[in-house]
Amino acid sequence: MITGPRAVGKTTTAKRLAQTVVRLDQPAQAAAFQADPDAALRSLPEPILLDEWQEVPGVLAAVRRAVEADGRPGRFVLTGSVRADLKDHVWPGTGRLVRLQMFGLTMREQLRRLGAATFVSRLGQADQTLFALPPNVPDLRGYVELALRGGFPEPIVKNFSEPVLRRWLVSYIDQLLTHDVAGLVRDPDRLRRFFDVMALNSAGVPTDETVRAAADVDYRTVKRYETLLSDLFVLESVPAYASNRLRRLVQLAKRYIVDPALVGAALGMNVAGVMKDGDLLGRVLDTFVMAQLRPELELEAPPPRLYHLRDRNGRREVDIIGEHATTIVGIEVKATASPDKDDARHLIYLRDELGAEFLAGAVLHTGPRVFELSPRVFAIPLCSLWA
């Protein structure tokens, strides 16, 4: 089962694995599966790709019955752009389906620099020699340009010009918040306001009251819309880190729009606009970094869990924490080309409090050098994520 936002390449990728492709979001193809899914499956050459399976939920039980009758692996590939499984009281996929979540293309994928260990696992070795630089090191503006270009395959493969890319992204948001939620939302304009508030606060920890006031909705609607956008795979929550050795930590989740290009499109911001807004600049870079890290972690078994850390009075804050078993790494994202020890103070605090549990920390910055700021805490250029 391959899940993820629309237009990240799920169907295109899965077609390479299938002899038969069934588009269940097309009524003509869905009709036979609605009438008798078991018979429809039996009549097709395998492997079978069932695209947008949630449009005909009964097909999942038919897949289960087919797998129970013949347990050969790889007979079915299911793809979907809506998180529909957990809404079913009796989920037939447990023990029968292996789930993989897809995201937009990372910079490593775009530049075909694959095969190296993930950034989080390299950081955990606390060795600055593991972090190289690519041939072309962007400056701050270059990083913002990359972030606002995003990771959706179609604009990248077709090399859209900036005006065409902006139109494509705006259309993506419009269709996502109207066509894809038809019948679920009575007021699409209100949902659009909510999405814009989430975009403005991407990589932030806004309270429900802040979101409610900004979007002009009640608390129940905040929760409903947040769940809806999460079910569409365009909004993700990173939970707060908790430890018995750290006190007075905020337990609010940190919310991210999954692709920074959607942040720029939702807010009508181009590169120049983001560069002029220091708060938004930090959020865009943080969202960009998360968009690089998140897909890598799908490749690790078991994957590290991602958290953020913030104390209640705002004096301590770490943007991203990766936890694996009983050890962690910490990552701060800074829009500076010359980070110093002050930029690493929260990571140093975390190292001193956690001791051996803390493997290493990185201040990801927009400059050209890798260097040590403090024992087990390094300054690493953002582009090392894909070097």
By secondary-structure content and strand pairing, the structural class works out as alpha/beta
- Give the helix level as a range of percent: 25-40%
Order of helices and strands: EHEHHEHEEHHHHHHHHEEHHHEEEHEEE
The first-to-last residue Cα distance is 30 Å
In terms of topology, how is this protein built?
Blueprint: E1 2-3, H1 10-15, E2 20-23, H2 27-35, H3 37-42, E3 48-51, H4 58-69, E4 76-80, E5 100-101, H5 107-110, H6 119-123, H7 140-149, H8 153-157, H9 162-176, H10 188-200, H11 208-215, H12 219-231, E6 235-238, E7 254-257, H13 260-267, H14 271-276, H15 278-297, E8 305-310, E9 317-324, E10 327-333, H16 345-354, E11 358-365, E12 371-374, E13 377-381
Parallel strand pairs: 1-4, 1-5, 2-3, 3-4, 10-11, 11-13
Antiparallel strand pairs: 6-7, 8-9, 9-10, 12-13
What would you note in describing this structure?
The chain is α/β, with parallel strands linked by helices. The chain folds into two domains: 2-101, Rossmann fold, CATH 3.40.50; 107-385, no CATH class. Helices cover 39% and strands 16% of the residues. The protein has helices spanning 10-15, 27-35, 37-42, 58-69, 107-110, 119-123, 140-149, 153-157, 162-176, 188-200, 208-215, 219-231, 260-267, 271-276, 278-297, 345-354, and strands spanning 2-3, 20-23, 48-51, 76-80, 100-101, 235-238, 254-257, 305-310, 317-324, 327-333, 358-365, 371-374, 377-381. The protein has a six-stranded mixed beta sheet. Strands 2-3-4-1-5 form a five-stranded parallel beta sheet. A two-stranded antiparallel ribbon has the order 6-7. Helix 10 packs across helix 13. The two termini are 30 Å apart.
